[in-house]
Model the fold of this input.
Amino acid sequence: MTKPPPSVRRNRASLTYKLRYAAQNPDKIGSYLSRVARDLKFRVSSRSHVAYYRAVMKSDTARNPEAAVGSRTHERWLALGQMQFDYLVGHGLKPDDRILEIGCGNLRAGWRFIDYLDAGNYYGIDISPDILLAAQHTLVRHDLREKLPHLALVGDLKLRFLPSRHFTVVHAHSVFSHSPIEVIDECLAHVGRVLAPGGFFDFTFDRTEGTEHHVLREDFYYRTETLTALAERHGFSARFMDDWEELPHGQSKIRVTR
Done:
């Protein structure tokens, strides 16, 4: 593994970090307090993390679907989607591959996969009906209806309705960074069933080399060994993707295979 950047040693949940950040960024205090108030409201009204984060996505998508998936500008939305696409193509993605994208959002990378893959070979799922409506608009904007992509709303990551041993590539970008460990465990417990022989599952995560923590219930930070050990308990081999670290993105990536 490459030498970790200083950012992975921060504990963003600590009072010291929050006070220092507030002193350095006074203009962001108001927006953070708004997030805290929203967090308290959604915690009270949501029975599960999926329900909680669905409410977060509804709120964020109403303001800006591209910002809801973590892109502050359209240019950044395009760049992050291109980065994900180029990475998988560089790792051997072919048009006849069959992709399952977990947390497809408004198709930031998905529209490029759909355009590249053979018709019918893209399947995107998400917990948010609001962001899936935005995904439909992306399909229309890029004139990709004839590629027959599948988009489905889910309430968990058990993947029960999907065919066994079907997908050669499973991809989850910026999903586990918003998930408590029990949601990640659920996904890893079931994704092996839908993976085709020789297939792989790539997922990104917010990495910490210190204490694992979360900010509100939106952003979760894990040690690499926590997630690789969890994957191994479900029968996978797990590999930290060093070459992903060289790209201009704040998250890290792990690839799991049978």
Remarks:
- The longest strand covers residues 195-207.
